[in-house]
């Protein structure tokens, strides 16, 4: 996504709402651009028009904030919705100043448990985790979309993405709405404690699927987690995120180096 038009779209939306945005600090640039606008101090997330997940994300955030869940919510100064401008969709969020340091595993697990508790109160249609796995499997099978993926790596990923969903889903564990990707990059350590962001990946499945994205020590502090299921979920998660990095359209910085590292971990 081109940076300058995205910044212009976000600035235009914020200005139209009566907030002052003279400066944009880009915080993340990949398939979506996240920026902090000053001096109004609002966090803007910008994606291409037609990106329906932006609307879903802001609706989920509103519901979870109302349920008291530990999430970073929309900016309360403006209408909580997705705004369209010049071919982009812009959503506006409260900016939280991060606190230095790492989140202790017990605190991480406690926050994730509270998030899951809030999600259990929601009646919202979301994809099943196997739908996301199938998208990754189709990506691996499509040589036009993953032209740089070596054949032996393609075979490994394809095999795991076919085999592991049945192993995960066949254990009969309760399923619920999940964050989908609650890895450390999607958790802010703030003065109010850990807060989760990026809710567009919500799906339904066992809580171990979410725990697989967190550091290994977090699972040890999550009550009732099944260690064998968590091990399978970790392998499945690693296969999925490796597949995303080989997409010819992926824009994650350093994505190919990460993909090679993760393939090596899967082989081990």
UniProtKB/TrEMBL annotation:
InterPro entries: Aminoglycoside_PTrfase, Kinase-like_dom_sf
Record key words, sorted: Kinase, Transferase
Domain Aminoglycoside phosphotransferase, chain residue ranges per copy: 42-215
Molecular-function annotations in GO: kinase activity
Source superkingdom: Bacteria
One Pfam assignment: APH
Protein name: Ser/Thr protein kinase RdoA (MazF antagonist)
């Amino acid at each position: 996504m081109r940076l300058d038009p995205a910044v212009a779209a976000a600035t235009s939306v914020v200005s139209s709402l009566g907030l002052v945005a003279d400066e944009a600090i880009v915080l993340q640039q990949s398939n979506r651009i996240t920026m902090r606008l000053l001096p109004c101090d609002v966090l803007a997330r910008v994606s291409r028009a037609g990106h329906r997940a932006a609307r879903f994300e802001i609706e989920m955030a509103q519901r979870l904030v109302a349920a008291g869940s530990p999430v970073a919510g929309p900016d309360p100064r403006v209408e909580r919705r997705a705004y369209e401008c010049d071919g982009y969709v812009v959503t506006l969020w409260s900016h939280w100043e991060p606190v230095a340091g790492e989140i202790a595993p017990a605190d991480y697990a406690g926050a994730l448990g509270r998030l899951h508790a809030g999600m259990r109160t929601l009646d919202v249609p979301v994809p099943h985790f196997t739908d996301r796995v199938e998208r990754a499997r189709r990506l691996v099978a499509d040589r036009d979309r993953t032209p740089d993926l070596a054949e032996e790596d393609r075979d490994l990923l394809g095999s795991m993405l076919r085999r592991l969903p049945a192993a995960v889903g066949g254990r009969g564990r309760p399923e619920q709405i999940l964050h989908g990707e609650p890895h450390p990059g999607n958790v802010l350590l703030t003065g109010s404690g850990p807060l989760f962001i990026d809710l567009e990946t919500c799906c339904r499945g066992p809580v171990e699927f979410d725990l697989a994205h967190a550091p290994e020590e977090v699972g040890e502090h999550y009550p009732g987690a099944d260690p064998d299921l968590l091990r399978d979920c970790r392998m499945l998660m690693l296969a999925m995120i490796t597949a995303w990095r080989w997409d010819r359209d992926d824009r994650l910085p350093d994505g190919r180096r990460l993909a090679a590292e993760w393939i090596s971990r899967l082989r081990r």
